[in-house]
Amino acid sequence: MAFNPINWLLGLFSLDIGIDLGTANTLVNVRGKGIVINEPSWVAIDKRTRIPVAIGAQAKAMVGRAPINIVTLRPLRDGVISEYDITQAMLEYFIGKAHQQSIVPLPRPRVIVGIPSGATEVEKRAVYDAAMSAGARVAYMVHEPAAAAIGAGLPTHDVTGNMIVDIGGGTTEVAIISMGGVVVSRSLRVAGDELDQEIIEYIRSKYNLFIGEQMAERVKINIGSAFPLKEEKIMEVRGRNLISGLPESIEISSVEIREAISSSVQVISETIRDALDESPPEILADLMDNGICLAGGSSQLLGLADRLASELKVRVWVAKDPMTCVARGCGLIFDNMDLYSSFLVGIERDPYSKINP
Questions:
Q1: DSSP conformational letter for 348
Q2: Would you give per-residue pLDDT tens digits along the chain (357 residues)?
Q3: For the domain that residue 231 is a member of, what is the CATH number?
Q4: What is the residue range of 162's domain?
Q5: Which 3 state secondary structure label does DSSP give 41?
Q6: How far apart are CA 347 and CA 357, in angstroms?
Q7: Is residue 57 one of the residues assigned to a domain?
Q8: Measured between alpha carbons, how far is 47 from 206 in angstroms, rounded to an integer?
Q9: Is residue 59 part of a domain?
Q10: Could you tell me if 143 and 272 lie in one domain?
Q11: What is the reported pTM?
Q12: Rg of the chain in Å (alpha carbons)
């Protein structure tokens, strides 16, 4: 790579940014400052020009309420890019927003982006190109479970094995990590979004009531559970009656929602079981001591850790602030690139870094 004095000068003052580019939410971690952005991965675009008119929380607030000339969408599905141009615009917006406090007016940061461990080469290239087009000086990628393990504080370079299960909006990532590498991994495209859809279908089939994604998400957060609760909950749900076509509200219990989402929770449990089944006996012995760490926004589902512990016969615990683990992990990689470089995927050489792949 030819020496570029302008890039070198920008590199002295621009930021190091870690991005958890999630299906449901995008989090941005600025080195030395922590999480500075946590917004929904929604974009509102003009239907005719496809130019974004709102991004993030503002765009999500428009879902189901926008005029006919505006379309609201999520440019990522199942953890990977489905709308390249819109993802690029969203990344450019978030990078620019994170860079507002920098003394360099034009953002040219180093960027680490979390990607699903099951991403194809084409999907990886799309993430890399989108980050570079959005203004990155150099872009790295890291598999989300590895970043989540680092962000959760697991001893990723110890000889003993540790398991991380990162349950986000579009994917569930399972990985067993030991000595700075991944021993076993699984990537499952069943996660928070699938739970929302099951809630929508359950209420539609049982009550002839059609509800939107945002209402389903609120139901999941407020009364959703994977394991019987000490005190079951009830919530009012509002939607459109499919027979009369009129607005209607019903009361639904946490017992019903647990039934609605049970099949997806079971799929996640079986995927973890498959990873355990593939693990060497020595690793299994380590996991009996260390347990299984849950990360990601959907790991906060009530009773999920209890259900998994009951079915897998291993202690299961939820990381501190699980939703930010991937973004925090990306930031920690920048703090010690020499230690964590083995986790980086498709490294783009940066001549001004100590790393020289």
A1: P
A2: 454 555 545 555 568 899 998 899 999 999 888 999 999 999 999 999 999 999 999 999 998 888 999 999 999 988 788 888 999 999 989 988 887 755 555 557 889 999 988 888 888 888 999 988 888 888 999 999 999 999 999 999 999 999 999 999 989 999 999 999 999 999 999 999 999 999 999 999 999 999 999 999 999 999 999 999 999 999 999 999 999 999 999 999 999 999 999 999 999 999 999 999 999 999 999 999 999 999 999 999 999 999 999 999 999 999 999 999 999 999 999 998 889 988 998 644 444 444 433
A3: 3.90.640.10
A4: 156-190+262-322
A5: coil
A6: 7
A7: no
A8: 35
A9: no
A10: no
A11: 0.87
A12: 21
Number of structural domains the chain divides into: 3
DSSP letters, 302-314, are BTHHHHHHHHHSS
Are residues 110 and 227 part of one domain?
no
- The CB density around residue 249, as the number of other CB atoms within 10 Å, is 10
Neighbours of 171 (CB within 10 A): 29
CB atoms within 10 A of CB 312: 16
Q: Same domain for 173 and 276?
A: yes
192 Cβ contact list (under 8 Å, min separation 6)? 24, 167, 168, 169, 170, 217, 220, 297, 298
Please report whether residue 165 resides in a domain. Answer: yes
Same domain, 256 and 272: no
CA distances from 1 to 7, 11, 242, 260, 272 (A): 12, 15, 61, 54, 42
Residue 71 lies in a domain: no
